[in-house]
Amino acid sequence: MKIQDARAVVTGGASGLGNAVVRHISAHGGKAVILDVQEGPGRAAAAALGASVGFVRCDVTSEAEVNAAMESAHTRLAGLNLLVNCAGVVGAGRVLGKNGPMAGEFFTKVIHINLIGTFLCDKAAAALMQHNRRARPANVAC
Q1: d(C-alpha 80, C-alpha 6), whole Å
Q2: Where are the alpha helices (DSSP H) in 28-115?
Q3: Distances (CA, A) of 46 to 4, 65, 87, 107
Q4: Is the CB of residue 136 less than 8 Å from the CB of residue 81?
Q5: Quick one: DSSP state of residue 112?
Q6: Phi and psi of 141, rounded to 5°?
Q7: What was the pLDDT predicted at 139?
Q8: Which one of 56, 59, 87, 96 has the fewest beta carbons within 10 angstroms of its own beta carbon?
Q9: 3-state secondary structure of 64
Q10: CB 137 within 8 A of CB 125
Q11: Stretches in the chain below the pLDDT threshold 70
C-alpha cells in the first residue's frame, strides 16, 4: 500500500509513538483517525494536523466503544485499510518489589489495555476491512 492511499486508524494517537505515526501518515498524504482515551490531547492533535486527521474518543478496553469508534472512523475516512495499535501503558514492575507484591489490579489494567484492547481493535477493523476490494487487512502493533 502506498502511504498516500492510507485510510488509517491509529490507537493511542494523541501522544507518543501513536502521534508520530499519525503525523507521518498525514505528512505523506494519507488520512487518519486518532482513537484515544485522552480527549483534549486527541482533539488538539487532530486539529493541528488539519482536515486529513480526525479524532474519536475511545477506551480500547470497551468492546462497545471500540466497535462504535471503528464504525465512526470508517465512515469519516470513507473506508479503512490500515490499523496501527499504539494504545498502551507501561507495565514494567516486579512481582515482588521493595514495597511488597505488585497489585493484581495494576497487572490487570496493563493486560486489558495492551493485550485485550489490541485484540478488540484488530477484530473490529478486520470486520470492516474484509469488504475492501483488492486489499488485505494491514495491522501494525507499536
Answers
A1: 8
A2: 39-49, 63-77, 104-111
A3: 17, 19, 16, 31
A4: no
A5: I
A6: -105, 135
A7: 59
A8: 96
A9: helix
A10: yes
A11: 91, 134-142
